[in-house]
Amino acid sequence: MFSNYLIGLREGLEASLVVCILIAYLVKTGRRDAIRPIWIGISIAVLIAMAFGCVLEFGSQELTFEAQEALGGSLSVVAVGLVTWMVFWMRRTARHLKSELHGRLDAALAMGTGALVATAFLAVGREGLETALFVWASVHAASDGTPRPLVGVALGLATAVFLGWLFYRGALKINLAKFFTWTGGMLVVVAAGVLAYGFHDLQEADWIPGLTHLAFDISDTIPPDSWYGTLLKGVFNFQPDPTVLQVTVWLLYLIPTLALFFAPVGFASGKGKVKTPDEQGSRPSKAPQA
Fold first, then answer.
1. How far is residue 57's CA from residue 67's CA, in Å, rounded to a whole number?
2. Please, what is the Cα angle at 190 between 269 and 203, to 5 degrees?
3. So where does this one cross the membrane (predicted)?
4. Which of 42, 50, 143, 204 is a good FRET partner for 32, with 20 to 30 A between their CA atoms?
5. Per-residue pLDDT reduced to its tens digit, 182-199
């Protein structure tokens, strides 16, 4: 449940911040007449994301077991790829997100109502589709037969909307770079579990061999139906009897991805780049305090 809460919080807060930045900029520049097209674009994006999630959930139920496992495994791999790209992208651009959105909005204001709708739709729609796909993959991986994963996602989204509202009202100051760095790192851990389970699905679909080659089996020590087994499953997608391929995929993804993500320099953090004169002048330097 915690992993799904984290997904809802992380993805929902991205979308909430985008909405807050767009609306606040229009209010500040005296263009309240453009707010309605922005909400239309946001509403369309939310509806399409929900429809996409429904298609994934109900459409897969009509398939055979092998086809369900093949679809689940394939989409899990795709979802992990998208989420990995997203956390690295946000890691680099969090500090410049506001100026980037303002630039897009200025261009859309010059083009008219349709461009405003499209700008809001594209800004929120990407997060919506990524969230729907990754949530579906994560819930599919949890597969505990309870509504807890969906409850976790709903609570995460609700928290994100509330935090976004506080951010808009000026009651909350968020260090976006730090927030997206640490939640991104946790999301990489969740994604590693989803990826490993996705490969297990592909093994069950008979697309990849090795289903009976277990790396270890500690089901007697950590029963899947115990409270701690359920907790490990919900947070890390832990499986007490993984295959050799699952463990290999988990390690090969998690270790280098986390190392690169938390690297002090390089494209993961955006540090080490030479700042342009505009970037250097965007923040007044502060004298050291005693």
1. 13
2. 125
3. 38-58, 70-88, 108-129, 149-167, 179-199, 247-267
4. 50
5. 878 888 888 888 898 889
Q: Which residue stretches of the chain have pLDDT < 70?
A: 1-2, 93-98, 141-147, 170-174, 176-177, 227, 230-231, 234-235, 264-290
Spatial neighbors of 66 by CB under 8 A, at least 6 apart, are: 204, 205, 206
Q: Are 80 and 195 in contact (CB under 8 A)?
A: yes
Contact predicate 188/254, CB 8 Å: yes
CB atoms near residue 36 (< 10 Å): 12
Angle at 205 between CA 199 and CA 207, to 5 degrees: 70
Number of Cα atoms under 13 Å in the Cβ half of residue 238: 22
37's CB contacts (< 8 A; 6+ apart) are 113, 114, 116, 117, 120
CA distance 193 to 149: 15
Burial class (CB in 10 A: 0-12, 13-18, 19+), 74: middle
